Amino acid sequence: MLPKLLSSIEATMLARFREAGFIKHAGDKGENREHMLREFLAKHLPKKYGVAKGEIVTKSGQHSHSADIIIYDAVNCPILYSEKTAVVPIEGVFGIIEVKSTLSKAEFIGAARQIESFKRLAPMELGIIQTREYVTVHRPSRPFGIVLGFDLADNSLESLSDNWKELNREIHDVNYFTNFACVLGQGLLRYEKVNLSLGDKTLLIDTDEFVNLVLTQQKKEKNGEPHDEIILRIIIENVKDGTFGRFFIYLLILLSRMKINVPDLGQYVDPDLPLTVVRES
C-alpha cells in the first residue's frame, strides 16, 4: 500500500517537474521545483518540523548560503525573518536539502560543497536541560545535508557515485559529508556499513552514527584493541519510481534519530548574558 502511494506521488511530482520545464527563465523554473518539494514536506512531515527556504545564522553573526529547503524545529525555533526567504538560528536546524533540476557533476559537487559549508557552521556546545528532578547536558545531533535532483544531466548514478567518492577524499572529515543523494525516477546514493566480522550490513545515513563509528575504530586502532572489520561504502539503489518513497522514509529516519538544542536568543543579542537553561517537562 505505502510503496504504491509514494510511487504515485513521485509520478505526480515528475509530471509537475515536466510542466515547470515550459518556463523559460531558469531561476523561475528551479524555484517552482523547489516549491513543489517544500510544499510536500510542509504537508506530510510531522507538525513539529518546520520547512522553509532561506539563510541560517549563528550567534556570532555568520550566515549560510541561501538553502533551498531548511528543516527546523517548529516548536522551539523562532524564524528571525520571514519574507520570500527566512532567517533561522542554526541551533534549531535539523538539516538542509539542496534541490537541482538536473544533477550534473558540477551541480552535485556545488550542492555538496554548500552542505559542507553549512555543516561547518553547526555548533558543538552542550545544551543544558532542567527537568523536575535534575539538570543535565546533552550534545546536539550533527545536522544533515541531502541533495535531490529531478533528473540526470547526460550522466549516471554510477558516475555521481565516483564524483562523491572523489569529493569525500578532498573534504576528508566525515562531519561535513553529504548524507545521501537521490534523483527522482532513477535512484539513490547512500552509505552502508558492512561488518565483515559479523557478516551483516546496515543503513548508514545519519552523521552522528558515521562520526562515532569512525572515531571508535580510530580509538581502538590507537590503543591496539581488537576491532571488527568494517567497510564503509557508497551504494546505489536503482529503485526508479520508488526513489521518492525511499527519500521520504530515509528523511523520516534521520529526523527521528536527532535531538537538537533550543536556540539561546539571549546569546545572539549579547554573548555576555548567562546561558538559558531549557526546562523540559
What can be said about this structure in brief?
The protein has 281 residues and is of the alpha/beta class.
Strand and helix layout:
Layout lengths: L1 H19 L5 H19 L4 E9 L9 E7 L7 E2 L3 E4 L3 E8 L4 H17 L5 E4 L4 E4 L5 E6 L7 H15 L8 E4 L3 E9 L4 E5 L2 H16 L7 E8 L5 H14 L8 H5 L8 E2 L2
Parallel strand pairs: 1-4, 5-8, 6-13, 8-9
Antiparallel strand pairs: 1-2, 2-5, 3-4, 6-7, 9-10, 10-11, 10-12
Helix pairs in contact: 1-2, 3-4
Query: How far apart are the termini?
Result: 38 Å
Low confidence ranges: none
Rounded mean pLDDT is 85
Q: Count of helices?
A: 7
Describe it for me?
By secondary structure, the chain is α/β, with parallel strands linked by helices. It has one domain (2-190, 235-269). Helices cover 37% and strands 26% of the residues. The chain has helices at 2-20, 26-44, 105-121, 157-171, 207-222, 243-256, 265-269; strands spanning 49-57, 67-73, 81-82, 86-89, 93-100, 127-130, 135-138, 144-149, 180-183, 187-195, 200-204, 230-237, 278-279. The strands form two sheets. Strands 1, 2, 3, 4, 5, 8, 9, 10, 11 and 12 form a ten-stranded mixed sheet that branches. Strands 7-6-13 form a three-stranded mixed sheet, with no helix packed on it. A hairpin with a 4-residue loop joins strand 6 (127-130) and strand 7 (135-138). It is globular, with a radius of gyration of 20 Å. It starts with a helix and ends with a strand.
